Amino acid sequence: MAIKTFRPITPTQRFQRLNSQPHLAKKRPEKSLTKSFSKTGGRNCYGRLTSRRRGGGHKRLYRMIDFKRTKLDIPAKIQTIEYDPNRSANIALLAYADGQKTYILAPRGLRPGDRVVSAAVAPFNPGNCMPLAVIPASTKVHAVELYPGRGAQIARSAGNSVELVGVEGDVATLKMPSGEIRMVRSDCKATIGEVGNNEHGSIKLGKAGRARWLGKRPRVRGMVMNPVDHPNGGGNGKSKGGGGRQQLVSPWGQLAKGFPTRRKSKESNNLIITRRNGRKTKSK
């Protein structure tokens, strides 16, 4: 994979950076593994706006991804690597020996024709899925379960991976991409390797229209609004809101910088050893 640049013939092409992926399949997705879904436009069931700056975008089909990998001890052959408009990672179409087909997140380095398997014990090759208890320490894994049987919830975006620090008894210690170190149960499943499409973060859209294709509406800073529209609005010249030096907040008064929004009553707080800011949690 490589980032594709353009001659600056137009203002759009001057800054445009796209991800060139010639290995992706140029065909429609597997029909039995897709379903239609309607977009919300950021509205809830009452029609009220709950998430700003969403709307429009190209029509999409949802690809049903197998995050649980419950088909054990049956090898599968990778048929195609495909683009998925619903996520940053690419997806791989697996064909099992018994004829069933599923989609999984495409690990880095996997190509059509390779074989993967989900088992209690399997070779430590990219794409193979197994419990954390049997994976060696310092191995990079992705698509990790937070609770056994719930399906992969950790490290699913493009280029992401988690480092397995070690396993002690029924507890495995993981180092997250953010730097956070946390514990999960050792019988949680994980997939060997990193998520592919690691150059996704280097993409530059180049024009506003491409953002609209993705369903992203324009974003307006609170500082340039009027005081009636935003707490940071108003003031003469470039100010931090209201003509003074107020704290930067959301339209509803929530502090925007440096304020922890994670709930203190969350059950998984006890499983965090070191937070992403480097602070160690209090041992109980």
Which features does this protein show?
284 residues; Ribosomal protein L2, domain 3; seven-stranded antiparallel sheet; four-stranded antiparallel sheet; 17 strands; globular
Helix and strand arrangement:
Elements: E1 2-4, H1 11-15, E2 18-20, E3 34-36, E4 61-63, E5 76-82, E6 91-96, E7 101-105, E8 115-116, E9 129-131, E10 140-142, E11 144-145, E12 152-154, E13 162-168, E14 171-175, E15 181-185, E16 189-192, H2 208-213, E17 272-274
Antiparallel strand pairs: 1-2, 3-4, 5-6, 5-8, 6-7, 9-16, 10-13, 10-16, 11-12, 13-14, 14-15, 15-17
Note down, in words, how this protein is organized.
With 284 residues, this protein is mainly beta. It folds into 2 domains: 2-200, Nucleic acid-binding proteins (OB fold (Dihydrolipoamide Acetyltransferase, E2P), Beta Barrel); 222-274, Ribosomal protein L2, domain 3, CATH 4.10.950. Helices cover 4% and strands 24% of the residues. It is built from 2 helices and 17 strands. Strands 9-16-10-13-14-15-17 form a 7-stranded antiparallel β-sheet, with no helix packed on it. Strands 7-6-5-8 form a 4-stranded antiparallel β-sheet, with no helix packed on it. The model has no long low-confidence stretch (mean pLDDT 92).
CATH class of the largest domain: Mainly Beta
Estimate nothing, just give the exact number of structural domains.
2
Name of the CATH architecture of the largest domain: Beta Barrel
* Inertia-based shape: globular
Question: What multimeric state do the chains show?
Answer: single chain
Mean pLDDT: 92
Order of helices and strands: EHEEEEEEEEEEEEEEEHE
Q: Can you summarize the main beta sheet?
A: 7 strands, antiparallel
Write down how many β-strands occur, each being a DSSP E stretch of 2 or more residues. Answer: 17
Q: State the CATH topology of the largest domain.
A: OB fold (Dihydrolipoamide Acetyltransferase, E2P)
**How much helical structure, as a percent, in the residues?**
under 10%
Number of helices: 2
Report, as a whole number of angstroms, the end-to-end distance.
47 Å
- Radius of gyration, CA atoms, in whole angstroms: 22 Å
Strand order of the largest sheet: 9-16-10-13-14-15-17
User: Structural class, please?
Assistant: mainly beta
